[in-house]
From TrEMBL:
Residues annotated as domain ATP-grasp: 120-317
Domain of life, source organism: Bacteria
Source organism per UniProt: uncultured Thermomicrobiales bacterium
Domain (Lipoyl-binding) ranges: 513-588
EC number of the protein: 6.3.4.14
SMART domains, A to Z: Biotin_carb_C
Domain Biotin carboxylation: 1-446
InterPro entries xrefs: ATP-grasp, BC-like_N, Biotin_carboxylase_complex, Biotin_carboxylation_dom, Biotin_COase_C, Biotin_lipoyl, CPAse_ATP-bd, PreATP-grasp_dom_sf
Pfam families given in the database record: Biotin_carb_C, Biotin_carb_N, Biotin_lipoyl, CPSase_L_D2
Protein's UniProt name: Biotin carboxylase of acetyl-CoA carboxylase
Amino acid sequence: MFRTVLIANRGEIAIRIGRACRELGLATVAIYGEEERDAPHARYADAAFVIEAGEATRPYLNGPGLLAIARRAGAEAIHPGYGFLAENAEFARAVLDAGLIWIGPAPDAIAAMGDKIAARKLAGEAGVPLVPGTNAAVATPEEAAALGAGWGFPLALKAAGGGGGRGFRVARTAAEVPDAFAAAAGEGQRFFNNPTLYAEKYIEAPKHVEIQILADRHGGVIHLGERECSTQRRHQKLIEEAPSPAVDADLRARMGAAATALARAVSYEGAGTLEFLLDADKNFYFMEMNTRIQVEHTVTEEVTGIDLVKAQLRIAAGEPLPWRQEEIALRGHAIECRINAEDPARGFAPTPGTITEYKEPGGAGIRIDGAAERGFVISPSYDSMIAKLIARGSDRGEAIARMRRALGEYLIGGVASTIPFHQAVLAHPVFVEGRAATDWIERDGVGRDLPPAELPPAAEDTPAPQAREYTLEVNGKRFAVRLFADADPAASPPNGARPATSRQRATPKGGGKAAGGGDGALISPIQGTVLRVAVEEGAAVKAGALICVVEAMKMENEIAAPRDGTVRDLAVATGETIKIGAKIATIA
Ligand code: ADP
Ligand code: ADP
Ligand code: MG
């Protein structure tokens, strides 16, 4: 086996991979962007190298830089984790061309599955049922509208290169097609450098059920059962569990057979996931394949007892799978909650900032995959995940009870988190009864009535900590001491309490999209980059009309007018960065 692995990622997944390497006796090399020099993932590795962005938009996307570090550090293999370069076939090819081992499938398999149109074609040929849709690009909104008229609306418009919920729009009527088309193509271009769209029938209220597979170089392919990921916001997963309450042994065997057939068809190697939609009649339809480890791989590990990252490493070293399909058994139940720095009460707006208090839960059946700590900065440059909280139980009821208990123990201060949202979900009959479908959070408004998170002011506005000199007398002896205090006492309360609430952001209670002050001032609830300004100075707008789109943490946040009025003092322009609390315009 190789001896040194370069981990081309950051955050929790970099540590997760590092832990697997350590258990196998492998040395690890971390990379970090300059601002993450002291980040836990960089500290965890045996060696850590700074990486600059170079030609890329983020340091962690700098392929040539990574290869140079691998050479310098003597790494023999590269693990990409998820996101960043994990599904970049060119980078995988460059790794192989440099004589290194790529811990993942062959570049051809990544490329075949990375283009969702090509993937649909291959899946169809392998006999896997597909969501009704096109197996070719849809070139114009008119063409898309005609498809919708044929299949019946709603219509899903999806970027061929899309992922992470981006490049995906739904048109409920023909009239909504032009806007949905433009938005999906725009995101496809911006995030994936590919504006190509395809269309699918939008399945109403399906469940998201996916199959984990493992394949070795010797023709061995097995599946490890399913995960259900129906609790989503904006088509992004928030809670995942294994097994799915909707899947019985027969359905599992049929979905598993479809998944392994497609994996064989592309000579797949490594860990991969085939995502399906399951409709109310338990018909399943292939959606896409993720050719990497997934965020929610943990729940499968908890119920199968198989360490998926160690399996990836062993497969990449050329070992055959040590398990036959009949040996895979699911025991008990596991649930994962994504703990994100987002405010559920403000439409899940990301809240970058510094974590001022941090205490993780523990005890029986609880696992945390994280990379956060007190003082850790949730940067607007990366996605908003703080940690993954996983609860395992002998059955679903026990897993739910443990998760609720652990959520109550979890303490995170300084940034908003999805913890209150998860508490609401885990207490909700729709979730408890296993009835969740992908639209249920938005339809039932779960989390909407939570109070907005009360946060210390944005880091930029907080003066640096100040030292004070004191002289203390103890038992007749005098000591000179220097006390360091945060300039804002609200930022670090005593006794590990939640941050004090004396200072709030200039955002009102209520919807995450609109943020309006009493005097008609429209205030940005987030820090980010202005992607688009939808109005001009002097325009008349109705409440709810789009004013601008701000991108933060890889999400597009629509800022809408809080009331009817005229746009005055428009203070933003496309391409500018904007801070939390900054004034966007006055709607008067
Ligand atoms: P997975 O497919 O592993 O479940 P997701 O579908 O949630 O993961 O995310 C796919 C990719 O998008 C991941 O590689 C992840 O890095 C990235 N991602 C995760 N969360 C977000 C987010 N809130 N916004 C944008 N991208 C995200
Ligand atoms: P991504 O690459 O962003 O993960 P997917 O194609 O996997 O995109 O879809 C993500 C989510 O979007 C699904 O879990 C589901 O909620 C929704 N979705 C995608 N396609 C459809 C469809 N045709 N009908 C209904 N929902 C869909
Ligand atoms: Mg997906």
